[in-house]
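Q: What would this chain look like folded?
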Amino acid sequence: MKRYSRVFLPGLLSISAVLGLLQYAEGADKLPVFVSILPQRFVVERIGGEKVDVSVMVSPGQSPATYEPSQKQMAELSRAILFFGIGVPFELVWMPKITAVYPDLRIVDTRAGITLRSMKSHHHEGKSHESEPPAHSSGEKDPHVWLSPKCMIRICQNTCAALAGVDPQNRAFYEANLNALLEDLNQLDREIRQSLASVRSRRFMVFHPAWGYFADEYELEQIPIEIEGKEATARALVRFIDEASEEGVKVIFVQKQFSTTSAKAIAEAIEGRVVPLDPLALDYLDNLRRIARALGEGLK
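A: My prediction, written as structure tokens:
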């Protein structure tokens, strides 16, 4: 994923941002900010509390790979002071358009400081297929950084720094909330490690490869069954079924933003089951706990 052409620079405020902050200082408004996906809303609201008003671009059930902002959202961006990006595919297309319409809007790349992993290929018949949705081209970096609690810690730190940068009078408030959130994330990490400590298999099969950072962190490996963002062909399905049988896979993990046809076909062939995982749920802590439990049960 390419870096944005506009990044947040602490201390440099546009005219529209100054006006927004003056209104906020007078008690008229909360800090109006936008985020790309629901897990970011969780972060900003935990850190910003009652001092922020958070709008989310990608609604529940929508895919960040194919999402397009509505006219209403584009109009509402006119009042925003900050936009917290996270590198999901729609940003590559829409962020330049958004900054062209609203050049004073501060764009925060919350991935700053995170080492991005490459999307891995899945090999069949001597060919390497990029297991990515259409918005991902060959060689792009994996955008699903928030699914690693360790990466999420850096995202939270970057979010706090941006809020404190435009609202320094409340820096202590934001930093106190950040510290409480970091404690929760470290506790989450310990719980996930405990949930996965006794699993026999370290490989799990998914439709869309959203779990690379999570898998890397907990010494797992995801096996994606989509081919270039599309359902697997009949020939590929046979090979995935063989692979699942060889690996002893009995659970295929899917997400509601993508088709489950291939996953159901494989699960039926191996007498397994399809289990939904949602990488975009709002309650980040509870969702990651559920995901760890589901993986732990599926990999026994």
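The beta strands are 31-35, 52-56, 82-85, 106-109, 121-124, 127-130, 203-206, 221-224, 251-254, 273-276.
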